[in-house]
């Protein structure tokens, strides 16, 4: 009767028989490199047998209904080797991704500080709006023409500083104007703090959820094109409501791009930290400028 | 803003549109498609950002 299925479950939670001698001391979980695959994306479904299943014993097939694990030593060794080699590859890619992430955020922090310094310098020098426009357009030219050629070398870091410095320099007249109106310092401070919080929140979400937001790429780029077309039209039409709509759309698009860019780094789609830094910086820059415009317009002091 | 600077700015924006267009076209045709859950996971934080911006606007108005 004990050999037929019936009161015994066909798949036991604990596949060992009670008569089998249990190891007298509690064995530590199998802490090889393989154990860390639980933490790796894509390998969460992998199952590791712990040491309680003594690898030196070969479990003989039993005719009872209890599920038995007839794993020979050789098969188990083969499985472990496969897991180890896979883990070594996955571990390598995780280390590489973490390195890109670390370098990106370090370079982003330093370039943001540099950009802020250049903005302060621009305000001190009382740079004209025309000069600031040339600085911003110069930064764009560097992004299009120079960065693609230097992003894989050390020179790329200097190019990133040049880009962020020029864009920061270009912010001078805007900040001077905003700080000149009553309550302007509060508006600029709120925009700065709001930008930081939005970036931290969205980046934290993308990093912790580890979701792949690459599906948003088409939608975001299409949205950017629509906004750019509206911006070109509004340069000549100068409709205030349209400008506010453009700023609101930029806030949403930049938020989406922060998720998109961060998830690309996390999931290994972006491996160049210089390019990643410029992408995130542009998202932050555009978000700040759009937010500043919205806050200034709705504060009633503009 | 003088007219020449408006024209210069417009030219740069058009160049940006021309550069982005192929990439946007390619991504829309061949890019990965998200499921309803994926879109929910993306739109909820963006909606939270919109709410946060509204809060900031109310703060500066007050």
How would you describe this protein?
The complex is a heterodimer of chains A (302) and B (62). Chain A has 302 residues and is mostly helical. Helix content of chain A is 67%, strand content 0%. The N terminus of chain A is likely disordered. The longest helix of chain A is centred in the N-terminal third of the chain and has 53 residues. Chain A folds into 2 domains: 71 residues, no CATH class; 213 residues, no CATH class. Chain B has 2 domains: 31 residues; 29 residues. Chain B has 2 helices and no strands. Chain B starts with a helix and ends with a helix. The mean pLDDT of chain B is 90. Chains A and B meet through helix 2, helix 5, helix 6, helix 7 and helix 8 of A and helix 1 and helix 2 of B.
What is this entry, summarized?
The complex is a heterodimer of chains A (302) and B (62). Chain A is mainly alpha-helical and 302 residues long. Helix content of chain A is 67%, strand content 0%.
For this entry, give a set of tags:
heterodimer, A: 302 residues, mainly alpha, 8 helices, elongated, disordered N terminus, B: 62 residues, 2 helices, 87% helix, flat
Low-confidence stretches of chain B: none
Shape of chain B: flat
Q: Please tell me the total number of domains of chain A.
A: 2
Query: Which class do the helix and strand fractions of chain A yield?
Result: mainly alpha
Strand content of chain B: under 5%
Number of helices of chain B: 2
Cα-to-Cα separation, first versus last residue of chain A: 88 Å
Number of separate helices of chain A = 8
The chain-level mean pLDDT of chain B equals 90
Overall, the morphology of chain A is: elongated
Mean pLDDT of chain A: 80
Question: Percentage of helical residues of chain B?
Answer: over 70%
Low-confidence stretches of chain A: 1-9, 28-66
Q: How is the topology of this model organized?
A:
The complex is a heterodimer of chains A (302) and B (62).
Chain A: H1 73-125, H2 129-150, H3 155-170, H4 172-180, H5 184-209, H6 217-237, H7 240-266, H8 273-299
Helix pairs in contact in A: 1-3, 1-4, 1-8, 2-3, 3-8, 4-5, 5-7, 5-8, 6-7, 7-8
Chain B: H1 3-30, H2 36-61
